Amino acid sequence: MNPARKRQIRLVVALTAAVLLATALVYTSFNASSEAKSPSELLSGAVGDGTYEVYGKVVPGSIQRDGADMTFEIADREDPSVKIPVEYTGQVPDPFRDGREVIVTGRLENGTLVAEKDQLITKCPSKFAAEAEADPEHVIIDESLDGS
Amino acid sequence: MAGLGLACLIAALCAFGYAAVAAFHGARTGDRRWVDSSRRSIYAAAGLLSVCVVVVESAFARSDFSFELVALHSSTTTPTLYKLTALWGSQAGSLLLWAFVLSVAASAVLFATRHKHREVAPYATAVLGALGVFFAGLMLFADGANPFAQLDPAPAEGNGLNPLLRHPAMAIHPPMLYSGYVLFSIPFAFAIGALITRRLDASWIRSTRRFALLAWIFLSIGIMLGARWSYSELGWGGYWGWDAVENASLMPWLTGIAFLHSIMVQERRGMLKVWNVSLIVGTFALCLLGTFLVRSGILESIHAFGESTVGTPLLVLVALVLIGSTALIVSRLDDLRSERRIESLASREAVFLVNNLLLVGLALVIWWGTFFPLISEAVTGTRSSLAAPWFADYTTPLAILLVLFTGIGPLLAWRRISPGAALRIFSGPLAFAVAVGVVLAVFTDAAGEPWAFAMFCIAAFALAGLAQEFARGAASLRALNGGSYVVALGRLVGRNRRRYGGYIVHTGIAILFIAVAASSSFQTSRDVRMMPGESVEVEDYRITYAEPSADIDPEEQKLTFAARLDVERDGKRFSLSPSRNYYSSNARDPSAGPIRSFFEGEATSEVGRREGAKEDLWTAMQPDLEPLEPLIAAVDKRLLRRLPEVGPGGPTPEQIEQMREFATAQGDAIERLAALYVANPLPVTFRINVNPFVIWLWVGGLVAVAGALIAAWPAPAARRRRVSDVYAARLAKELGRA
Q1: Chosen from A140, A142, A148 to mutate, greatest number of chain B CBs within 10 A
Q2: Does residue B112 lie within any of the structural domains?
Q3: Rounded mean pLDDT of chain B?
Q4: Distance between CA atoms of residues B556 and B396, nearest Å
Q5: pLDDT, mean of residues B532-539
Q6: What value of ipTM does the predicted structure carry?
Q7: Do the Cβ atoms of B715 and B498 come closer than 8 Å?
Q8: How many domains does chain B have?
């Protein structure tokens, strides 16, 4: 085989490998990624059996613990009457409690959101630095708590 | 003081600007005086920025809250070490650090090359000057990026440093990463200079390769410290989470390795020139992107620093670097043609090329995964993200191939290797790898995890190959000089630091990959909820939750809940004490709930762990605070009633007294809470992990960094040559005069 032809073959092989990798990347990433959904969107039935990042508020009084497992309900932010039960195992963030905004990653099984391990994020009502940074001259007393 | 700092910063901006313009003019006209003056102007910028750093640091040390930066990121209660390191906890501070390291590194390289590269260096100076202008300009003109911004009146107390960052590893992790990012600007600047002047032989590489290596070392240390911090301070039990900002540091690390290898091919064989300039441009762009990712808040990350004002300018700079460099490379394609071609696939250069492709492939996969939330949002309209398993699916096979070719590469000769020589040199390592595979399959359950098993065998092959190289080299030296084997080995590394230093790096990386494969495939993790006195068995360990304890640190406003775990294994006993620290989330704003605020902010885990050569027993605890809820709410309500309402004119003396009483009451309440926790223990969820081989991750990393330092150290032979070069130049000058 002459060297020019050899180089051509190598180039074709390398390019094919690159195209294959790129296709696989695009294909698997859109498949494996978890889309953000609200409980309403999730329960409307128009979802596949993939994993989703479900965001909503923890329904007060719904938290039940059983050993290291936990169940609770999250309600839609817009329409609090729509609720979805969640089964969760793993680390519970400290600020997690009734009424908190959470993001749970998991899949839907028989109307229950079965969360992946450790995939519970609780949004902090006041981030440590973000808030103070936005308003360095923080007032001492929050008006809403005045006189309470 | 702030005035002095600001003046120095403005002067540094001017110095950088002058350096850029003067260097460019000097390069154009060939007038050395302009070039010399531009270089000195960079030195001046370094001096001026040093003053800036000293000014800011002394403000941190004095807790001078008239500096906005200090008020936001430090407090009187912050421990002194962390007061100083708080500099890079902020946007303005890290920009200052960027500019400062840039000026120092630029001065170093320009000083070292002041008698060389008469054509390339001036353009490199111009590039570095322009970068300096950019970063100094950001500090001066971007919103909230000025380290000397003042608060009037100065607050009495600062916000304090985020408690998660109060860890020795965190104190040096950011400057290491930043130094790594910044140092890659040096080879980048010289590559641009070489492109402009069409001086595209390997001389720009020879002068800047040490900076690339140093950048890589800094990145490595930074990444390892980050991993170590995550492992010992975050309660989830891992050292790597494919977090956006972690990935941002890994990408230039990978392309940096590719660059350090492919430049050898250019030095030796005059090939891969387009590839090399593209790699360094890409690496530097990734470094800027890393800075951007940390600071922009565009992707969700553990490194959430809030909204930033420098995101857009940084992105513009990345675009400028990429577009400008690509245009320059395309216009110089004729000069970048290879001097030779690859003769055989069984040659070192061919394997280097394959490894380069794997490294860049890895970086591309990580890039895609990291930016996927943005990509998916652009394509489908909804933001989706990729989790760790997706990353692992791609990086695992690529990493195994990488280690395989890393094992093959050093054994091959440049140009080509004959089949007979190949057989001779590969049979030993291959036999060793097969033996390791058989032993692992027979005596352990390693074969149950095919990827990890493959990694063990291939890493064994690579390690055996490296051992063979060391042995062969030492044996031939001993044949030449005699002496003991150890002496010969030392002399071998000392004489050929670049090569054998590199092999030490390979050794470290192979160890590191074994640790990663073992710890990710054979980890045992259990979450157990226990009350004091209860026990659990995890693997061979019998773990008893002996007793709770609590501690208060009024200085740091820290409340600690801890647990003593008694562990028994094969009749041997020891204790671990994982704990959880709660910090008052905003010392200056008790209205959020004087007690509640402790549980709203960042809590940190102190991991209780016993490290061993075979495995780590790793424990973290998290008390279930729910039963305390009603109590905390009631106490908060009572406490808040005692807080006076301060009018617009500031607190009256009476109110100040009331606030002082309030603070005392708050402290008492916290103390009672701590006592309550010990007296009436709450259920605690423990995460108990048995992590095999993790210690080898740190060992491998240290070995790799040590090897890289050896490779970067100037060899005595080179030192001699440099002296003789100077002598020759002087002689030539004298002769010219005569």
Answers
A1: A140
A2: no
A3: 88
A4: 42
A5: 93
A6: 0.73
A7: yes
A8: 1
